[in-house]
Amino acid sequence: MGLTLLEFEVVSYLHRYGAASPRELNRKLSAYSPDSLTSTIQRLLEKGCITQLGTCVSSTNTAAYEALAPHRVRRAVILAAGTSQRMLPATKQLPKPMVKVNGKQIIKTQLDALIAAGITDITIVRGYKGHVFDELVDEYPMITFVNNPDAAITNNIVSTSLVAHRLDNTYVVEGDLYLKNHTIIRPYEYRSHYCGVRQTVTEDWYFETDGSKITNVDFGTAQDQHQYVGISFWTAEDAKKLEQDIASVLSEPGGDQLFLEAVPLKVHKTHYEVHVREVQHADVIELDTYQELCTIDPSYEAKA
Question: What digits encode the pLDDT tens for the residues 229-250?
Answer without folding.
Answer: 999 999 999 999 999 999 999 9
